[in-house]
Design goal:
The chain has 16 helices and 29 strands. By secondary structure, the chain is α/β, with parallel strands linked by helices. The protein is globular and about 90 Å long.
């Protein structure tokens, strides 16, 4: 079984070095690729959110598959040089080890799309990760019969998960009887995480089929959801070191292998990043999980095909690929099979089959829609909306642009009709939410409460003409459907790059309105009669003080970008900005073109305030984090020509220190952010 290794390492968050290592060659070349990791991370998150949204929509599977293919091509073009692509095309290797830095695990390498195939279709992949934290050894003996524990449907609400456990038991019983006794199987209910922590190391293989939750804000709280409890990523790290961890964990649950970077930064000092990281760091040799949400019955079918092949003597990697293939053949428009990924060596064999050269018998499982739905808890907000899908489409079409294609009038008419319907739906939802709020208030509903009240624009301490107010801005791109037809939807991709540049200036808070349709749907439910009175939410949107109207026109190989800043209170245009972008280059690589706009915004909205108090702690300012103050910033105290360095911030106040004599200072003196911070833009 010939194997090659795709090795990728991240250098200074700006450059990825990639090498295809072929053991048959004495030397292999590293290919440096300059990337914008923020842009790569953004595309990866957009892709996962699109797929999560589509997992609930059974009528658009074919459309979803095409979008994944196009997004995979974007990643291919962004990460692989032509030499790397050619090497992957020409190799006759069957297995692909994806050996990556801990700062690159969030990239769905298996879904990179090259020459009409995902990498997970062309090869049999398995991930290995270079991590800085300690990884525990696992010297558990790999001797049959292996002990296996199936934890299925612990919350008693997934029909497919319950059937999955029964099917696994049937496959194992048949194998133990007809070939040789290879697995001792146990199934029992689990209500508390303590049971798993106590019993986990007694088994060689753990199969979990149920609900999982990926916590993006606090990945260490990502978990398997039990009947009365959660088994979290942090719990895995707390398990005693007296014995070795299982050899194989198959976490057949939604987003059970989704990850952010495993690399710590100043804001993240955790030792546990997610379920995959915790299991691998604790010594598990193989971990199988999913990128995104999977339908209940699809998860059952995949597990059936996988264990059929694994018990027949196939390698763990080939067993996953055969399961993918069979799933793809049974429902070609569905993309659930691509959600699975493997951490560990894909060439490992767990069992001695009856005949390793033969494919396992193809006994189709029951393919039927699940009455329960995907294996996930309903999120508080359905953030993956139709407009979010368009963002990915815009980037895709940017890389696959054909300049002279005539506009399909029928397609345009369809888009405009859909846009009109969406706009009317938004108007209807806003009216319904307003009615809900009015009705609840008129009924004196004491349980009615605000959701995240963050509108604090009327600040007592910012009543003078010098002190900065909190500036909120939303980028508007106009008619998305017309944009998509006329210029391949590049508006939204330019807007994303522009947002990335503006975000580096703390004096402006960006407001994203592009997911408004799905947010309104959820708020309509949250404030309506279907929700218990004490749990109803009163919407409190953060208003944008300014709108940045963006238009993009495609002419030959240039993008003409025009933007106008409009005050939402008086509709006056305050700042204008025009520039040219090269249509043939990655837009995110041209973010320096937006520096002029950012400098104009800095001049328009300077971060400045006054000294409000002088104490033993330092010099107190009447502006804080909301107005753009950040720790370690330096401010000029204008009247006395001194420099103040910020040491701490609150929402609307901050404290700084100076090296000069404080006796010359007094309350009311003006401060302004030094222009030296422009170098960070």
């Amino acid at each position: 079984m010939k194997t090659i290794t795709l090795e990728a390492s991240l250098q200074n968050n700006r450059k990825i070095e990639i090498c295809i290592k072929d053991p048959s060659k004495p030397a292999n070349r590293y290919e440096p690729v300059l990337v914008e990791m923020n842009a790569i991370d953004y595309q990866c998150k957009e892709l996962i959110q699109i797929l999560n949204h589509k997992s609930k929509d059974r009528n658009s599977a074919e459309e979803s598959k095409k979008k994944v293919q196009r997004a995979g091509k974007i990643l291919c073009d962004a990460l692989f040089s032509e030499n790397i692509k050619q090497t992957l095309r020409n190799t006759d290797a069957e297995y692909l080890i994806i050996d990556i830095d801990d700062g690159l695990v969030q990239i769905p390498w298996e879904l990179i799309y090259l020459d009409q195939n995902f990498l997970c279709e062309r090869f049999i992949p398995g991930r290995t990760v270079k991590v800085k934290n300690q990884v525990k050894d696992n010297h558990r003996n790999h001797k049959t019969p292996l002990n296996m524990w199936v934890i299925a449907n612990p919350q008693k609400n997934l029909t497919g998960a319950a059937q999955e456990a029964e099917k696994i038991e049937e496959i194992i019983d048949f194998h133990n009887y007809s070939v040789e006794p290879t697995i001792k199987l146990e199934r029992h209910a689990v209500k508390k995480s303590d049971i798993i922590k106590k019993s986990l190391k007694e088994y060689d293989i753990i199969h979990f089929a149920g609900h999982a939750d990926y916590n993006e804000k606090n990945p260490s709280e990502s978990c398997w959801k039990l009947f009365d409890d959660n088994f979290t990523a942090k719990d895995i790290g707390d398990i005693d070191d007296d014995t070795y961890m299982p050899l194989l964990i198959f976490s057949n649950a939604c987003q059970s292998a989704r990850s952010e970077s495993w690399r710590n930064d100043e804001t993240n000092k955790t030792s546990f990043f997610d379920m995959a990281h915790s299991f691998i760091s604790s010594g598990v040799r193989h971990y199988i999980g999913t990128f995104w949400n999977i339908p209940d019955m699809k998860g059952k079918d995949f597990a059936h095909y996988f264990y059929q092949s694994l018990l027949d003597g196939k390698t763990i990697g080939k067993s996953i690929k055969l399961a993918r293939t069979k799933m793809n053949q049974s429902t070609q428009s569905d993309i659930s099979w691509a959600s699975y990924l493997l951490y560990g060596d894909p060439t490992t064999t767990y069992f001695r089959g009856n005949n390793n050269d033969k494919e396992p018998p193809n006994v189709p499982p029951e393919i039927s829609p699940s009455p329960i739905g995907p294996r996930l808890n309903k999120p508080k907000h359905f953030w993956g909306g139709f407009l979010l899908i368009l963002i990915c489409l815009f980037g895709i079409f940017y890389y696959n642009n054909t300049d002279n294609n005539p506009i399909d009038k029928d397609l345009l008419a369809m888009y405009l009709e859909a846009e009109d319907k969406e706009q009317k739906d938004i108007e209807r939802l806003i009216k319904q939410i307003n009615d809900n709020v009015s009705n609840n208030k008129s009924n004196n509903n004491e349980g009615f409460h605000q959701a995240n009240p963050i509108n604090n624009n009327n600040l007592d301490h910012t009543t003078d003409n010098w002190t900065s107010r909190q500036t909120t801005l939303s980028i508007m791109t106009g008619d998305s459907f017309k944009s998509f037809v006329y210029n391949d939807g590049i508006d939204e991709f330019v807007a994303s790059a522009m947002e990335s540049a503006i975000q580096k200036y703390p004096g402006i808070t960006l407001i994203d309105r592009r997911e408004i349709h799905d947010l309104l749907k959820e708020l309509n439910i949250s404030s309506g009669p279907l929700v218990k009175s004490k749990k109803r939410i009163e919407p409190d949107f953060f208003p944008a003080n300014y709108l940045l109207n963006l238009s993009v026109r495609l002419k030959n190989d240039q993008l003409i970008v025009s933007s106008r800043l409009r005050n939402t209170q008086n509709s006056q245009f305050d700042v204008s900005f025009d520039t040219l972008l090269d249509h043939q280059k990655n837009i995110f690589d041209q973010k320096d073109k937006f520096e002029e706009l950012v400098l104009k915004l800095m001049k328009k909205f300077p971060v400045r305030g006054k000294i409000s108090q002088i104490s033993d702690k330092g010099i107190h300012l009447n502006i804080g984090y909301a107005e753009g103050v950040r720790k370690n910033q330096r401010y000029e105290i204008i009247e006395v020509n001194s420099i103040l360095s910020v040491v701490s911030t609150e929402n609307h106040t901050s404290i700084g220190i100076i090296n000069d004599d404080k006796t010359q200072l007094q309350t009311g003196l003006k401060v302004i952010l030094l222009n030296e911070h422009r170098k960070d833009i």
